[in-house]
Amino acid sequence: MKFILLLITFAGAKAEEDNGNCKEILQGYLTGQLSSALGAYQVEALRREFKSFTEGMEKSMKELEQNVEKKLNNIKNTANSSVVYTRWGRKNCPTGAELVLSGYVGGSRHTHSGAAVEPLCLPRKPEWGNYKDGTDGSKAYIYGAEYETGDLSGKWLKLHDHDVPCAVCLVRNRSVVKMFPATKVCKDGWKFEYHGYLMAGYHGHAAGTTYTCIDNDPESLHGGGNINSNGYLLYMVEARCGSLKCPPYVEGREIIMKLILFLMIVAAAQAGTNTGQCKEMLQDTSNSSAVYTRWGSKNCPGSADLVLSGYVGGSLFSHTGAAVEPLCLPRNPEWGDYRDETDGAKAYIYGAEYQTGDSAGKLINLHDHDVPCAVCLVRNRSVVKMFPARKTCDKGWKHEYHGYLMAGYYNHSAGTSYTCVDGDPETLQGGHINNNGYLFYLVEAICGSLKCPPYVNGRELVCVVCSLEK
Fold first, then answer.
1. pLDDT in tens, 79-129
2. Taking Cα atoms as reference points, which of 282, 281, 292, 265 lies closest to residue 468?
3. Which of 178, 222, 356, 464 could form a disulfide with 363 if both were Cys (CB 3.0 to 4.6 A apart)?
4. What are all long-range contacts of 340-345, with beta carbons under 8 Å and residues at least 24 apart?
5. What is the distance between the alpha carbons of residues 429 and 298, in angstroms, rounded to a whole number?
6. Structural domain harbouring 454
7. Burial class of residue 385, CB neighbours in 10 A (0-12, 13-18, 19+)
């Protein structure tokens, strides 16, 4: 640290030399080089001026040292930040990541209508609390997971009915982890972790599921062989045209996916070669970053960087085996291995529409329009959180956007998730056609277990997305 500050101090002095060698000129005055032409009064005045100059110089350099030391400490703190993700379909982590846990994928049974939708990475050596052995009483259940790839070819066909492994991975010196559907390359500034195929539950099963990125080079568990035990089942996801734009998407084509990380490291060599950018680089890396999706808008707020502007996609409202959450799909999808037809047992992804025909104001004009989305990056933030029934952020939190809480119609077959749709919503060009797909309805409060007051029966709920500075 001291060596770096010494170099910066030397550079500052060097800069002063290049601007007319001011210190040498004043020293010349004071050592008598011009004393023959000046009286004692003028020499003393120059001495005071020189003292004032050097004191100002020393103060400026001290402030510079303190500022740089603070920035370097911030970089050090950022460099110590870490993120964790699950690599589905593999027993180990990619090179550069540390293995936290290698285990088994578990989840709810595909025939259970009350299923917990997300998969879990279960440890190979479980621990127990209080228990009673036996499936007794009213309980939730967890099963193992299997690949359902019997209508595919190559390595995927060989995995059919095999049990699925998983690995929990830790990567250091990173600030954000984000999974991007229909993408297999990383944007500048993002680091590739792994890519694979988007998988979910079969669209006609009773249990809801989530979209999951299964590694492109999948493994199976030892002893999990070709035994059809069922449980939590993973199927390839195919695109369905309608509200989902085709082109660029293709009916029945399998969707790929990539998990990438936002890199927050400054290389010393880069800082040395990019003259004039050191300050900006220090500012950009002084804190961590966070990513969120702005649903119902094509752009990000002014304080956020746009990572992706795309189309909202999700499961069909009438499918019992729906993946419950919406995704923000890119406008220019990428593809892996595929076969262009809706063939065999698959999961599906459709476009999304607003269902606001019985609403008031600008919302009624959105009815049956297709829904855009934007993935946004905010720097110097540690947390992003959606707060329901709020439209302002608490002190210390920064407002990103606010809007209306929306979800699927309560009596439809497909499970959904609560989503905050922007209060100034946009639509996609040419998307005012009732193709259905993943449908967004306003959410109303229902009194009972929900306390009224302060809530009001039948009143639509708002929401706000806030970020927290580190």
1. 557 889 999 999 999 999 999 999 999 999 998 988 889 998 989 888 888
2. 292
3. 356
4. 340/250, 340/251, 340/252, 340/253, 341/251, 341/252, 342/238, 342/240, 342/251, 342/252, 343/151, 343/252, 344/150, 344/151, 344/152, 345/148, 345/150, 345/151, 345/202, 345/235
5. 11
6. 82-124+141-469
7. middle
End-to-end CA distance of the chain: 24
3-class secondary structure for 166-198?
EEEEEEECEEEEEEEECCCCCCCCEEEEEEEEE
Assess whether 65 and 150 both reside in one domain: no
If asked whether residues 155 and 207 sit together in one domain, one would say yes
79: left (phi over 0), alpha (psi -120 to 50) or beta: alpha
Helix (H) or strand (E) holding 379: strand 372-379
pLDDT for 252-306, tens place per residue?
Answer: 998 888 787 776 433 333 333 344 443 443 344 445 789 999 999 999 998 899 9
Token pair, residue 431, equals 């998307």
pTM above 0.90, yes or no: no
What DSSP character marks residue 444?
B
Identify the residue whose tokens are 């088994």.
104
List the structure tokens of 443: 């959410």
- Give the chain's largest Cα–Cα span: 108
Residue 112 identity:
H
- Answer for the pair 171, 96: CB distance below 8 angstroms, yes or no: yes
The whole-angstrom separation of Cα 50 and Cα 127 is 74
> Which of 40, 55, 78 marks a domain boundary?
78
Within-domain flag for 129: no
Mean pLDDT across 47-76: 68
